[in-house]
C-alpha cells in the first residue's frame, strides 16, 4: 500500500520563513535552515521550499539558501519560486533540490512542463496550482496568487498532468492559513481527474483535517505550514494520530 505523505512547507521571503492568511499578512516563522533540520529529524516525509517573492521580483530562486537547506536534509526536497528556464532547474538540482515546483511559468507557457519532463523526468516536475473560489467555481491564479488566469482548476490540473507533470501541488487560496480544514471537494475533484499524485495544501488546523483530506479528499499527500512552524501540532504526534485512525503513514 502506498503510504500518505506529510510535507511541511517553508514559504521564504528575504531569507526568512514567513506565513500569512490567504497569501497576505505575512509574519515571521523562523530560520528556514533550522526549521528544515527540525522537520527532517521529526520524520517529515518531504520538504517544500517556496521562494514566494522570486516570480514577482523577476529573479531566480535563492540557490545559496537552497544549498544550505539541502545540507541538513535526508528526505526529498522540492524547491519552487521564480523558475522559468531549464537553466534555473539545473541550478536548483545542482544546489540539492530533488524536485522543482513550477507555477506561473507553466501557465504562461504550458509546453515548459513537457520540456522539463523530457529533460529531467516527470518525477522531478511538480506543477503548483493556486486556486481561489470565485462565484462557486475554482479559478486558477498566477503571480503568487495576484492574477486570474481564466483556467478552471480541474481543467488546468488535467492539462498539466497530460503535459508531463509528475505531481500536482494544489493550494486552495480560499483556505490558506485559515486553519478551517482543506478544500475537500476541490481536492477530490482533482484527484479523480488526474493519474498523478495530488498534494493538498491550504487550511490545515488540526489532526482531523489530515484524516479528512486523505479520506474524503483523496489526496496522496498533505502540505502544511502554520501548525508546524508555530508548534501547534508536532509531526510525530500527528503521524501517531493518523496511524491510529487507520491511515497508511510512515512512522
Automatic annotation (TrEMBL):
Keyword Cytoplasm: yes
GO MF entry, a single one: lyase activity
Gene Ontology biological process terms in this record: L-histidine biosynthetic process
Active site annotation, chain numbering: 11, 130
Pathway: Amino-acid biosynthesis; L-histidine biosynthesis; L-histidine from 5-phospho-alpha-D-ribose 1-diphosphate: step 5/9
GO CC field: cytoplasm
Catalytic activity, EC: 4.3.2.10
InterPro entries: Aldolase_TIM, His_biosynth, HisF, IGPS_HisA/HisF, RibuloseP-bd_barrel
Compartment(s): Cytoplasm
The keyword Nucleotidyltransferase appears for this protein: no
Catalytic activity: 5-[(5-phospho-1-deoxy-D-ribulos-1-ylimino)methylamino]-1-(5-phospho-beta-D-ribosyl)imidazole-4-carboxamide + L-glutamine = D-erythro-1-(imidazol-4-yl)glycerol 3-phosphate + 5-amino-1-(5-phospho-beta-D-ribosyl)imidazole-4-carboxamide + L-glutamate + H(+)
Keywords in alphabetical order: Amino-acid biosynthesis, Cytoplasm, Histidine biosynthesis, Lyase
Predominant place of localization: cytoplasm
Subunit structure, interactors included: Heterodimer of HisH and HisF.
NCBIfam families in alphabetical order: hisF
HAMAP family assigned to the protein according to its UniProt record, in alphabetical order: HisF (MF_01013)
Similarity field: Belongs to the HisA/HisF family.
Job description of the protein: IGPS catalyzes the conversion of PRFAR and glutamine to IGP, AICAR and glutamate. The HisF subunit catalyzes the cyclization activity that produces IGP and AICAR from PRFAR using the ammonia provided by the HisH subunit.
Protein name as annotated: Imidazole glycerol phosphate synthase subunit HisF
Gene: hisF
Amino acid at each position: 500500500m502506498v503510504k500518505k505523505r506529510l510535507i511541511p512547507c517553508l514559504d521564504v521571503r528575504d531569507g526568512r520563513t514567513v506565513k500569512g492568511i490567504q497569501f497576505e499578512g505575512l509574519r515571521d516563522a523562523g530560520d528556514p535552515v533550522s526549521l528544515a533540520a527540525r522537520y527532517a529529524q521529526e520524520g517529515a516525509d518531504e520538504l517544500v521550499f517556496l521562494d514566494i517573492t522570486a516570480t514577482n521580483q523577476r529573479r531566480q530562486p535563492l540557490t545559496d539558501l537552497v544549498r544550505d537547506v539541502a545540507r541538513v536534509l535526508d528526505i526529498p526536497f522540492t524547491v519552487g519560486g521564480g523558475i522559468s528556464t531549464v537553466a534555473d532547474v539545473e541550478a536548483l538540482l545542482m544546489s540539492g533540490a530533488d524536485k522543482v515546483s513550477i507555477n506561473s511559468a507553466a501557465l504562461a507557457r504550458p509546453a515548459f512542463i513537457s520540456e522539463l519532463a523530457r529533460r529531467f523526468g516527470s518525477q522531478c516536475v511538480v506543477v503548483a496550482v493556486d486556486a481561489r473560489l470565485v462565484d462557486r467555481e475554482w479559478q486558477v491564479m498566477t503571480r503568487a496568487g495576484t492574477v486570474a488566469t481564466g483556467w478552471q482548476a480541474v481543467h488546468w490540473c488535467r492539462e498539466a498532468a497530460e503535459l508531463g507533470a509528475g505531481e500536482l501541488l494544489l493550494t486552495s487560496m480560499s483556505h490558506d492559513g485559515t486553519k478551517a480544514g482543506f478544500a475537500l471537494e476541490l481536492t477530490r475533484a482533482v484527484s479523480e481527474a488526474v493519474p498523478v499524485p495530488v498534494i493538498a495544501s491550504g487550511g490545515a488546523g488540526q489532526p482531523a483535517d489530515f484524516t479528512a483530506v486523505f479520506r474524503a479528499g483523496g489526496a496522496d499527500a498533505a502540505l502544511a505550514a502554520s501548525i508546524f512552524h508555530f508548534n501547534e501540532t508536532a509531526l510525530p504526534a500527528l503521524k501517531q494520530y493518523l496511524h491510529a485512525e487507520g491511515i497508511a503513514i510512515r512512522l
